[in-house]
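Narrative summary of target 7.
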Amino acid sequence: MLRPLEDLRWDNSFARLPEAFYQQVRPTPLPDPTLVAFNPDVAALLDLDPGEGGRREFVAALNGELALAGTQPIAAIYAGHQFGVWVPELGDGRAILLGEIVNSRHQRWDVQLKGAGLTRFSRMGDGRAVLRSTVREYLAGEAMHGLGISTTRSLAIIGSDAPVFREQVETGAVLVRVAPTHVRFGTFELFASRGQDAALRQLADYVIDMHFAHLLTLPAPARYVAWYREVVARTARLMAAWTAVGFAHGVLNTDNMSILGISLDYGPYAWMDAYDRGFIPNHSDPAGRYAFDQQPRVGLWNCARLGEALLPLLDQDVPAASRGTAVVAALEEYRGTFEAEMDQLMRAKLGLVGTEAGDVVLVADLLALLHDTRADYTRFFRALSHHAAGDSTRDVQRNDALRAEVPALERLTAWLARYTQRVLRESIDVTARHGRMLGTNPKFVLRNWMAQEAIAGAQAGNYAPIEELRRLLQTPFDEHPAAERYAERPPEWAREIAVSCSS
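Modeled conformation, tokenized:
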């Protein structure tokens, strides 16, 4: 049953932890707020009546002007490795957790106001978010969800004309972010770094009880070991999912890593246009620590830092000489999990049902071809989904879509000949294969130029492009003929777009 905001069932299980885990703080409202975007799909997750978006009271409540019964606003504390450098205390410097909404299906959803004002963790910051970054994160969550990849999502954007200073003066906004939890690797790192083993155990018990209940039957420390292994595996699979869709996060600090292995904290991200293994989406990362092809390695590095933090739990009954054995064993499984997931995802992109020894080389050679020619990753695989492999390779010369993406005709033809021989050994027919590939290779991804157009519209008071993109990205595998321009090559001006940590 859908309900008004005031009638939702609120709780805040995280606030029942000791106050060492957070600061109680009230949001600081933006002046003259307005509703920029509202997501009816996320509203449905919360049992929220979609008509609420039109109410002044809805905007006022999520702007922090009205206190909602049952909420306990807090800012969580955590630490983290930022660009490989240890920072001993971070925390929610501009985000305030109202609590969890418990829906009719007994699911719990954190509702967090990002950009809601100063907390004691704001350091030199202003506690605000800007309209530009909130639009990017709002759309990124929907794009990722539409692709079937686990992610935070957002219920709404609240905007204001209040000035916020970044590289230039911008307008402020609040993103109403929703997730099963916002606990991150850095939350554990903080208590471990302070030698607070009791708090570390309490946090681990909380996360396992709330989100890994299937492990509760195991005794400690076996329960903690099994949980850590699952977090490592989830992280490896997430890195594979991003890689398969050509997504680069941009800032994989340990404080941006979800303990659930979901996509978290969208800033200078990008879905690649021209395929480049060394693509760096973040203008603030000239050394390329978080380049596209480094993400799997960084995911492993971050899991190792989490493992170090959890040593007091994982090695409770282990002699000092054997400390770290459980961590090393879990980390050694990361690569196998990542590679198995990548193999499966890439075979699906090629429409392959069975497995052959040469598939890995077939995929590697294709990616090398795409890299060398800087082919558009998304457009190439979509075009391949329509290619009638099994016909004469002379058809390659008539396949304008593939040739347009890979101008190296000789290399393309040679690879397609091998691909044709491979699919001829499959047990499904061409029609079935095309259907599977079209349901795997999206026609639309959220390219930076698309987000930038929506941002420019919003800054001018036109919020319709945000909703247009939200609807499109819900079903990125469908044709959407009326939205064909979003599937075309990026415009030339898109080359000038630069995103950074402030994005």
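The chain is about 40% helix and 15% strand.
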